[in-house]
Design goal:
Shape: globular
Number of domains: 1
Oligomer: single chain
Strand order of the largest sheet: 1-2
Number of strands: 2
Number of helices: 21
Order of helices and strands: HHHHHHHHHHHHHHHHHHHEEHH
CATH superfamily: MFS general substrate transporter like domains
Radius of gyration: 22 Å
Strand content: under 5%
CATH class: Mainly Alpha
Structural class: mainly alpha
Helix content: over 70%
CATH architecture: Up-down Bundle
């Protein structure tokens, strides 16, 4: 008798699945409207690339700070309450951009982003395992890949707004016929006027976003959501962490996730600096980021389809090797072909986050999976640690006769090598179990 086909999402779970999946787009928007702000703040505030990269340190540092507290909160209460708290923190952080603009202090913007990502940590820690739980375990990884496919849709919108309503509208980014910034040579009083104008341009989308998030909060608060089956709300963090740390598949998954997020943020943040060396303006360079995200989105759907025929561990390894090849091109090729390699890298990054996530959490019980998810969200700290280091390399100008911006992509190269190793080891562990 033929085995009944198991749906990725059942009819009963369809509405909750759609609502929670919308959150993936919501945090994708925040991620990718923020990445270009490194270049924007560097110009407007007249600070180094390394210092401007503290935008990423604050943004992704918020994940590391709040992931475990978020998981403990969700374990004690519910997925729904975790999402509501996350949306509230998200909205507060976004709305704080308004007073940050009035004070014109870079540190205030960093604090705003830090609080905003407290909310994102709650959302990611809650939404990912929530999606995994919405159906059969056999289709869990495919279900998460499907939900994650909507993340780049939000990212695309964030990139579009950054390119067409922020970067292109910055007065401080205008150049003279020689290609030099006009802003840097102006008297301080003129700079102050331009700075106020440009910071208002930067902050407006965040403030609008804050109100949109509040609206989503109200909708989810009023909607009935499925509850965890046989949930234990007692917090036994010590025992849970002990089990997680003894699980080599999970432990190595956290490390692989850290390297993946670092690679993703570096490739998407510094595409503007890479293009700038080729004489491409920031707003135009951001269009290459949009193309990269379209490639990422299409590849996400393709890879989700391929998982029906190719083991997720094998597909992860193949894509990681592809990333090694394209990043090698980014480093060695000093021209438009190198930029095309940078765009193409997004195709290989597309399946990595949800696939590493799904593999790492395989076999964990619901309560262990909740704190396990927190560890994987904490791994997003890779996006906080490596971009400032890459920014410091870019600030050098040249390294051993090579453009420093090219050499800086050695860091994503190392990341893809680490992910390849994880994929190979995951394949080996599966074969050992089968044997």
């Amino acid at each position: 008798m033929a085995k009944a086909k198991i749906p990725v999402v059942s009819k009963e779970m369809l509405v909750p699945f759609i609502l929670i999946t919308s959150l993936f787009a919501l945090w994708g928007f925040a991620n990718d409207i923020t990445n270009p702000m490194v270049a924007a703040f560097s110009t407007v505030m007249e600070i180094s690339t390394a210092k401007a990269s503290l935008v990423q340190f604050a943004f992704y540092g918020g994940y590391a700070t709040m992931a475990i507290p978020a998981a403990l909160f969700v374990k004690k209460y519910s997925y729904k309450k975790g999402i509501i708290v996350g949306l509230l923190l998200y909205a507060v952080g976004a709305l704080l951009f308004y007073p940050a603009t009035k004070y014109e202090v870079f540190g205030f913007f960093l604090v705003s982003l830090y609080i905003l990502t407290f909310g994102l940590a709650f959302l990611e820690t809650t939404a990912n395992p929530f999606i995994l739980s919405m159906g059969d375990k056999e289709t869990a990884t495919r279900r998460l890949n499907l939900a994650q496919a909507f993340n780049p849709m939000g990212s695309l919108l964030g990139m579009f707004i950054a390119s067409n309503f922020i970067l292109s509208a910055l007065t401080s980014d205008k150049k003279d016929v020689a290609g030099d910034l006009i802003y840097t040579g102006l008297p301080e009083i003129e700079k102050a006027t331009i700075r106020s104008h440009d910071l208002a341009i930067i902050s407006t989308p965040y403030v609008v976003l804050g109100f949109v998030v509040l609206l989503v909060l109200v909708v989810i608060a009023l909607m009935k959501m499925p509850k965890r089956n046989n949930a234990d709300h007692q917090i036994k963090a010590k025992e849970t962490f002990k089990r997680l740390l003894s699980n080599v598949n999970y432990r190595e998954g956290v490390v692989a996730q850290l390297f993946y997020v670092a690679a993703q943020i570096m490739c998407w943040t510094f595409i503007i600096q890479y293009a700038d060396r080729l004489g491409i303006p920031k707003s135009t360079a951001q269009n290459y980021n949009i193309v990269a995200m379209v490639v990422f989105l299409l590849s996400r759907f393709i890879s989700t389809f391929l998982m029906k025929y190719i083991n997720s561990r094998m597909l992860l390894t193949i894509f990681a090797v592809g990333g090694i090849i394209t990043v090698t091109g980014i480093i060695l090729i000093q021209g438009m072909l190198g930029l095309y390699c940078l765009v193409a890298t997004s195709a290989f990054m597309s399946l990595m986050f949800p696939t590493i996530y799904g593999i790492a959490l395989e076999g964990l019980e619901n309560d262990d999976a909740t704190l396990g998810a927190a560890g994987l969200v904490m791994a997003i700290v890779g996006g906080a640690l490596m971009p400032p280091l890459q920014g410091s390399i870019i600030d050098l100008g040249t390294v051993a006769g090579f453009p420093a911006v090219n050499i800086s992509f050695v860091l994503p190269l190392i990341s893809f090598i680490a992910i390849t190793i994880y994929g190979l080891r995951a394949i080996k562990r599966t074969r050992t179990v089968i044997a």
